[in-house]
Amino acid sequence: MPDIKDKDDLSFQGSEIFLDKPRHIKFTVRGLKLIAKKYGSVVKAFNKLEKMNQEFDVETMDHLVLLLHAGLVHEDAKLTTDDVENLLTMNNLAAVFQKILEAFGGSMPQPEDGGSNDDPGELLSTSTGSSTPAGLS
């Protein structure tokens, strides 16, 4: 396991995505607490992405809404899950899914060896071998 930098690194500004306006998905402690309250732990929530239903069922969409809300709440404290539901469309679900994974990797401590966590697909992969569920691509 690589050594993690010992200093605070605030350089990650989030994964930019255009929804209703340019937004930045970033998982701060507040967002991570929202996820942990719902799923018991952050690890369980992101592991759930691996097993995400390949169809657009209610559970899958609720999961994406919660993760996106948790990733956006750092820049808009008044944003609700209802607001987030209205930002998601069939056209942007795959992009949102990818940006959530990207933001999760970017929000993690960076290894000292100069490596990065920019490819969360290595951290989390689906049963299809892709970091995007087949139904979302």
What does this structure look like?
With 137 residues, the protein is mainly alpha-helical. The chain has one domain (22-136). The chain has helices at residues 29-39, 42-50, 58-72, 81-87, 93-107, and strands at residues 15-18, 22-25. It has a two-stranded antiparallel ribbon with strand order 1-2. A hairpin with a 3-residue loop joins β1 and β2. The radius of gyration is 15 Å and the shape is globular. The protein starts with 14 loop residues before the first strand and ends in a 30-residue tail after the last helix. Residues 1-8 and 117-130 have low confidence and may be disordered.
Number of domains: 1
Q: By helix and strand content, what is the structural category? A: mainly alpha
Write the element-wise H/E pattern from the N-terminal end onward: EEHHHHH
Query: Cα-atom Rg, whole angstroms?
Result: 15 Å
Mean pLDDT: 77
Helix content: 40-55%
Estimated share of beta-strand residues: 5-15%
Distance between the termini: 32 Å
Could you name the ranges where pLDDT drops below 50 across 5 or more consecutive residues?
Answer: 1-8, 117-130
Largest sheet: 2 strands, antiparallel
Count of separate DSSP helical elements: 5
- Can you count the beta strands? 2
Neighbour order of strands in the largest sheet? 1-2
